[in-house]
Predict the 3D structure of the following.
Amino acid sequence: MVLPQGVSVSEIVSEEQVVAAADGLFYELGVQAVGMDVIRDTAGVTLKRLYRLFPSKADLVTAVLEQRDLDVRQAVGDFVDARGGDSRARILSVFDYLSEWFTQPSFRGCIFINTVGELGGKYEAVQRIARQHKLLLRDYLADLVADCALPAGVADQLLILANGAMSTAAILGTPEAGRQAREIAELLLSSRSAGNPIGG
């Protein structure tokens, strides 16, 4: 591994520790409820090292969301690939992934939706990363939708369905939203395959 100039291995390890610690704390408690001192203690780094790595809390929030974006998209892709099947089956596997995620005791909803909702327009970077994450998920669905020879707008409908399931599962505290969203997705795909023009 070639390190960036002026960056040590210990700094890279510390950065990973801080991002992992902050991710867990922000996801469970929210961004504003967690102080940098708590992150320092959880990550096991000095406050000096923490602020050297992340001069502001906004920088740390950005790093957490960027890493979570990579992790989530990798996890979804790996799950769907492991299930296999044709493109229609792979679309439905996305909702199977959500269903399994919703059953985890640590589930607190979508960190991107949560963070944008909590911070509003305070951090432009947060909105940018969250928007990009959702657009990349839509692009992933769009490729599968295109393989099914379905209208491009179906990907947008599936994205809305997935996001709605995340919020519903988090607010109501029930994993049933995943199964229900999968059933709706299946109906949507069947309807559009039959040539229903709704939604374009």
Summary: Confidence is low (pLDDT under 50) at residues 1-9.
